[in-house]
Design a protein that fits this description.
Length: 402
């Protein structure tokens, strides 16, 4: 069975990560070559929470955000006494729709969070213009979009990159925040330095767990793991997603308001110095055949760059597709970690139907450079007959998902 994805970390990095847990000084890496102030953090959620605290927005201010993202990003907004207002997706894409944005904005809106999903980098110009006209701070959530460079998109006040367990160039945790304004950067860093350190032993256990997961994700071992989970009557999707969770959703703020331990920072620095541009180019090239076969079942903006961190296929019958692909030895999976941000009660004018359709119809299919071309062709063949979810039907189909 081809596993749903591979951990993007080598055995040498894992060994180095474990060695750093023994002795390494609590030092923050310095990246003086970057054009904007940047800081390593425990997670993207830590950075998002730090930004919201540092801006000191009046309680009840609205934060406009991509309607399709991980639920914790909206939870953190609420925990800061602010109101998340979802911005629906552009039809046939995972990016926010400007028409929806126009409907969502109000005199209480202060921030706009744009999530770039699955490795797609769409231009933020339109959103940046909108943010400027409405005096909103634009934040680019690039948790899924690292391709070897820590850039700050034009017009964005901050960008957030994640290096959690399943991300590109993972350090098994950690994130980087890049900020435009030096004063904001100072406040964010100063606040973070008052947090308690996450424990080294927590990170050491993580390295060991992910070494085991890496060993289990090779083709022959993965099939055995899947059969073992099924024999024990355990839900495979739940077990595997729980295994790679960054941290539990319980007591979210306590979990995110911590400093990254020194060995994590050291491993993160090591990973950021590796050349990921070439690797992500190879990954995108490997996905091309599968993507071409999936045709309009891949939602993406024509003008975007895509590195295919994941290959998301949108279909009218996601359960059938997962069943069919698993029968062929490809461990496809429906979305579990992302969800639709619900509109607040006071904003019944805000609609999120395209995001609901994305949640309903998206299936991730395994594709990575070390999958042989013949296997990718077989996967492409399986996809070419899949039922398309027509974009104009998204509203009707999403009713199924509610
Ligand atoms: C779109 C998006 N935003 C934010 C996050 C949170 O990242 P972290 O785990 O570093 O907090 C994730 C994590 O998967 C994500 O996918």
């Amino acid at each position: 069975m081809w596993s749903r994805m591979r951990l993007d970390i080598g055995w040498r990095d894992l060994a180095a990560g474990l060695a750093y847990c023994g002795a390494c000084p609590p030092q923050r890496p310095v990246w003086s070559e970057l054009p904007h102030p940047a800081a390593p953090l425990l997670s993207v959620r830590t950075g998002w929470d730090l930004l919201l605290q540092s801006w000191r927005l009046p309680a009840g201010s609205e934060v406009l955000m991509s309607a399709f993202t991980i639920p914790d990003m909206a939870e953190i907004v609420r925990a800061n006494q602010l109101t998340p207002v979802p911005v629906d997706l552009k039809p046939g894409s995972y990016s926010p729709c400007t028409e929806s944005l126009r409907r969502a904005v109000s005199p209480r809106s202060r921030v706009l969070l744009a999530a770039e999903l699955f490795g797609e980098r769409y231009p933020l110009d339109e959103l940046a213009d909108f943010a400027e006209r409405h005096n909103l701070a634009l934040v680019a959530d690039l948790a899924q979009a690292y391709t070897g460079q820590l850039t700050l998109p034009a017009g964005a006040a901050a960008a957030l990159y994640s290096f959690g367990p399943i991300k590109t160039a993972t350090a098994l945790g950690g994130a980087v925040i890049v900020m435009r304004d030096a004063e904001l950067a100072e406040q964010v860093i100063e606040r973070e330095q008052r947090y308690p350190w996450a424990r080294r032993s927590w990170f050491a256990a993580r390295v060991c767990k992910h070494a085991a997961l890496k060993a289990a994700s090779t083709k022959p071992a993965y099939g055995a793991v899947v059969r073992w989970l099924q024999r024990g009557g355990r839900d495979m999707d739940q077990s595997l997603s729980a295994a790679v969770k960054n941290f539990s959703a319980d007591e979210l703020l306590r979990a995110v308001r911590r400093r990254a331990p020194a060995p994590l920072l050291r491993l993160l620095d090591r990973k950021l110095r590796q050349d990921y541009r070439q690797r992500t180019n190879r990954r995108a090239a490997a996905a091309e055949e599968v993507v071409a076969a999936a045709g309009s079942r891949i939602w993406r903006r024509a003008e975007s760059d895509h590195s295919f961190w994941l290959v998301p296929v949108v279909t009218l019958d996601p359960e059938e597709l997962v069943k069919r692909l698993r029968g062929e030895g490809f461990d496809a999976v429906q979305i579990r970690s992302l969800d639709v941000v619900p509109p607040p009660h006071s904003r019944d004018d805000v609609c999120v139907d395209n995001a609901r359709a994305a949640l309903f119809g998206t299936v991730f299919v395994p594709s990575y450079p070390d999958m042989p071309t013949s296997e990718r062709r077989r996967l492409a063949d399986c996809l070419s007959g899949v039922q398309v979810l027509p974009v104009e039907e998204t509203i009707a189909s999403s009713a199924v998902a509610r």
